[in-house]
Amino acid sequence: MIKKIVVLTGAGISAESGVSTFRDNGGLWENHRIEDVATHEAWDANPEMVLDFYNQRRKQLYQVEPNAAHKALAKLEEKYDVHIITQNVDDLHERGGSTKVLHLHGELKKSRSTVDDYKIYDINGWELKMGDVDEHGTQLRPHIVWFGESVPEITKASKIAARAYIFIVIGTSLNVYPAAGLLESVPYFVTKYFIDPNARENYNYNNLTIIKEKAGTAVPRLVEELLAKA
Ligand code: NAD
Question: Model's pTM, two decimal places?
Answer without folding.
Answer: 0.96
